[in-house]
Design brief:
The protein is mostly helical. Among the domains are: about 10-70; about 120-165. The protein is built from four helices and no strands. The chain is elongated, with a radius of gyration of 43 Å. It starts with 10 loop residues before the first helix and ends with a helix.
Amino acid sequence: MFLFPKFNLSISLWRFLIGCKLWLRTTFSVEAFSLCQYFSMLMRKKALKIKRMEMKQKDCSPKVDKLLERHSWITAKKQLFGKSGTDYDFSSHDPRKSREELEKLQAEQSGLEKRVNKEIMAMFEKAEDEYNDLLSNKNIIENDKSKIKKVIEELGEKKKETLKVT
């Protein structure tokens, strides 16, 4: 029970040693108790954080499902998300910087919209559409020309055959 029972020590020394032993026990028990309280508080904080994250996940999962329904490209490009060297490498792109750049470009675009004549832009787009239609019609006509040449050649051969027969 005592720390050093074999030694002949004076009573005052025994009292001192017993006092030290009691002080150590109470000090360590107080420290252990405060550590237990600290760790239980940390556990409660972590449990609350987990609950919040679960709630966010429940809130976000329908949104993700809607995005997947609306944008079919997400499922096609999903395997590229997070891979380095792709456009979907989220660790190499800073979202805040990208947001700032987007806002800057939108402000620049709105400034340019004020200077551009919208009627002329509409006319330009219409002319561009007509040009693309003409190009596609040209390709169709060229394809049709080759078909027409074949038909003319076939008719020429049939004409020669009928002339021979007559």
